[in-house]
Specification:
The chain is of the alpha+beta class and 241 residues long. It is built from 5 helices and 7 strands. Strands 1-2-3-4 form a 4-stranded antiparallel sheet, with no helix packed on it. The protein has a 3-stranded antiparallel sheet with strand order 5-6-7, with helices on one face.
């Protein structure tokens, strides 16, 4: 906690759980082993892609732990991510909220994450303002909002028009997240079909099955789910918590 001043910085102060690192290592080792078993009929670029994805994952984790931070001053908030940073003046900040982590994050990731919402309803994650790095992120954010109040021209009261934008953006995120899950299922189904064709001596269609079909399903699922969820927003937002 702080002494009431708005100046503060949030960085990594706790190590990543060993179970998280162990699980990541097992998954990567298994991926390497499986990539070494690629059959002669399949393209040899698959192991290279797998290795590239694993290296990208490790680099991102390292950057998130040692480069990312959230810096708060009387002028506003700066969120330094793994690669880029972004700064908001207090007049651009609509709200700061602690919310549950997305489903599927697992127990080896922060369960409560802090987001900054701007006046357009867009949300941005504030690094290290979570239950991994703070004992009580709710209390910390409440104190932060209270300390920042004198520097804002706006109050922290919620406004129905911005809440509607937030809900619409949340519906779009949900739609494309589920579309991505569906696309993964389609991809692995098409991979199984392609492996079967190789096994029985039929011609391969890797571009069609592993690229065109999944991408088409992503676009179709995303569009349908976005329409479905955006048409089911609450009819009145004035009473939304």
């Amino acid at each position: 906690m702080h002494d009431g001043g708005v100046e503060r910085e949030y960085r990594k102060r706790r190590k990543v759980p060993r179970t998280y690192l162990l699980l990541l290592s097992v998954v990567m080792l298994n991926a390497l082993i499986q990539s070494g078993r690629v059959s002669d009929g399949m393209q040899r670029w698959i192991p290279a892609v797998i290795v590239l994805l694993m290296v990208t994952t490790v680099v991102r984790i390292v950057l998130e732990q040692y480069r990312a931070y959230t810096h708060v001053t009387a002028a506003g908030i700066t969120a330094q991510g793994p690669v880029r940073s972004r700064t908001w003046a207090w007049q651009e900040v609509y709200d700061i909220r602690v919310q549950p982590a997305p489903r599927g994050s697992g127990r080896m990731a922060p369960q409560w994450i802090t987001y900054l919402y701007d006046l357009e309803g867009r949300r941005f994650q504030l690094p290290h303002l979570n239950d991994w790095q703070l004992d009580d992120p709710y209390a910390e954010v409440s104190e932060l909002c209270l300390a920042a109040a004198p520097y804002r021209s706006l109050t922290w009261e919620r406004r129905s028009e911005i809440e509607e934008r937030i809900l619409r953006r949340a519906a779009r995120r949900k739609a494309w997240t589920w579309a991505a899950y569906g696309t993964l299922i389609v991809f692995f189904a098409m991979l199984a079909v392609d492996l079967y064709r190789v096994a029985v001596g039929l011609p391969e269609h890797m571009l069609l099955l592993l690229a065109c079909v999944p991408l088409t399903s992503l676009v179709a699922l995303g569009a349908v789910l976005q329409w479905y969820w955006t048409t089911r927003l609450p009819p009145t937002l004035a009473q939304q918590p």
